[in-house]
Amino acid sequence: MSCDTSQTGNLTETSDIRTTRKPAAGASESESYDLQKGALLLAAARRPPLRLWDSGRLEDDWTSGHVKTLGELVLRGFKKKKKKKKKKKKKKKKKKKKKKKKKKKKKKKEEE
Fold first, then answer.
1. Cα separations in angstroms, 98 against 31, 94, 95, 102
2. Cα separation, 98 vs 104, whole angstroms
3. pLDDT digits (tens, 9 = 90+) for 28-85
4. Beta strands, E only, the chain
């Protein structure tokens, strides 16, 4: 996909990225370079989002729910998300019943 101009000077999509709007007569080379650079940036913005697979390679993906844009991947340095560790539940200590039994035995002995 590239940008080309009609007679009015508006940008239109064409099949070849290398053809860009021609600068006005007498324009410098830097202006034509800027136009080409702008066309490349526009084409890059239209690309599908990229997905970072487990192997670490980037691949186009239209259907995945885990889609990241290239900008997000660059900002994160292509790091994978760390899995959260599950917290272990603490076991409740059982109350000792032996002490209560001893107390009951002592009470019985005292009553007799």
1. 93, 12, 9, 6
2. 10
3. 555 556 666 666 666 666 655 555 555 555 454 444 445 455 666 565 555 566 677 8
4. 2-5, 11-14, 50-52, 58-60
What are the residue boundaries of the structural domains of the chain, listed by start?
1-46, 48-80
Q: Is 3 exposed, middle or buried (0-12, 13-18, 19+ CB in 10 A)?
A: buried
Report how far residue 23's alpha carbon sits from residue 33's, in angstroms, rounded to the nearest whole number: 10
Cβ neighbours around 61 below 10 Å, total: 16
In order of 57, 75, 104, the CA distances from 65 in angstroms are: 17, 20, 65
The 10 Å Cβ neighbour count of residue 50 is 18
> For residue 66, which amino acid is it?
H
Q: CA-to-CA distance for 5 and 21, rounded, in angstroms?
A: 5
Place of tokens 């076991």: 91
State how beta strands 2-5 and 58-60 pair. unpaired
